[in-house]
Write a structure and sequence with these properties.
With about 290 residues, the chain is of the alpha/beta class. It has 14 helices and 9 strands. It has a 6-stranded parallel beta sheet with strand order 6-5-4-7-8-9, sandwiched between helices. A 3-stranded parallel beta sheet has the order 1-2-3, with helices on both faces.
Length: about 290
């Protein structure tokens, strides 16, 4: 919405313009009809006026390169700062979860399109499994989760906590699930910050078959990719994770957490500003680090 204003201010103030796209904006399912048509027209008309474009995944970067023919673009992953995960029982204690039960956590916006309804249906049918489901966050589905939690002893709702406390709660779970239904290109190419929070907290992850999360999970060997969300496929995924070598899994999760940490992403951002905004040559040290 602010891109045309940004271009106007760039011209008026003789400044520089950075277009930091939070998502694949024009392919968001919330944008439809005339609104999408207008948004695409605005982006196509003004994006080449930006000195630098920032996106959140390589698939989105490739889409922008092909769609608009731009080269002054960089991918910056939406990751937290690295911190060593510290296991605790804070979820068991705060939600009165029976000792010994393992926790599958969904963390983030409690909205449709994230697989939450399927998870609730699956856990409502499970009686003697070793896992419980914790949905943590806020949103339109909170009343549904609360109702299911009142009926089934293996479903829990944890209200959102302050940002600085999130990873403490995440690290108290055992497996994280990031399942964005393939409703749009934006969903398909997404790399949500919650996905990286699971990894930073030391949790193996279960994701749907979407290219960006699939690539991270399969290349690093830190979880399972589901072709579909069913009770049998989820059970097999959890069994697969349980069968992984715990020490090796911990090492792999730490490697990804360090590589994808905001500390590393900030280096890429600074270099992108140097090159495209301030037209300074790339620093040899950073080039070597990337190689």
């Amino acid at each position: 919405d602010l891109l045309p204003l940004g271009v106007l201010l760039k011209w008026a103030l003789r400044g520089k313009l950075v277009y930091d796209a939070h998502e694949l904006e024009t392919e968001n399912p919330d944008l439809a009809g005339l609104g999408r048509y207008v948004a695409k027209g605005i982006e196509r008309a003004f994006i080449r006026k930006a000195d630098l474009v920032i996106v959140v995944s390589k698939s989105i970067e490739e889409w922008y390169r092909e769609k608009y023919g731009i080269t002054n673009i960089v991918t910056l992953l939406n990751c937290p700062n690295y911190q060593e995960p510290k296991r605790s029982q804070i979820l068991h204690q705060s939600l009165d979860i029976p000792k010994g039960k393992r926790i599958l956590i969904y963390q983030g916006a409690l909205v449709r399109g994230r697989g939450i309804e399927m998870l609730l249906e699956i856990f409502a049918g499970w009686k003697n499994e070793g896992y419980v489901l914790v949905c943590m966050g806020y949103g339109e589905l909170a009343p549904m989760i609360r109702e299911q939690a009142s009926k089934h002893g293996n479903i829990y709702l944890k209200e959102a906590v302050s940002p600085h406390a999130v990873l403490e709660y995440t690290a108290a779970a055992d497996v994280g699930v990031s399942y964005l239904e393939d409703a749009s290109l934006n969903s398909r190419f997404a790399l949500p910050n919650k996905f990286f929070e699971y990894i930073t907290a030391g949790l193996p992850v279960i994701v749907n078959d979407a290219p960006e999360r699939k690539r991270v999970v399969e290349e690093a060997g830190i979880g399972v990719v589901l072709r579909e969300m069913t009770a049998d496929s989820l059970r097999r995924a959890l069994q697969t994770i349980e069968g992984m070598d715990k020490n090796r899994l911990r090492e792999k999760l730490m490697e990804v957490a360090v590589t994808c940490s905001w500390d590393r992403q900030a280096e890429s951002m600074i270099e992108a500003y140097r090159r495209h905004v301030f037209q300074q040559p790339l620093r040899a040290q950073v080039i070597n680090d990337h190689h």
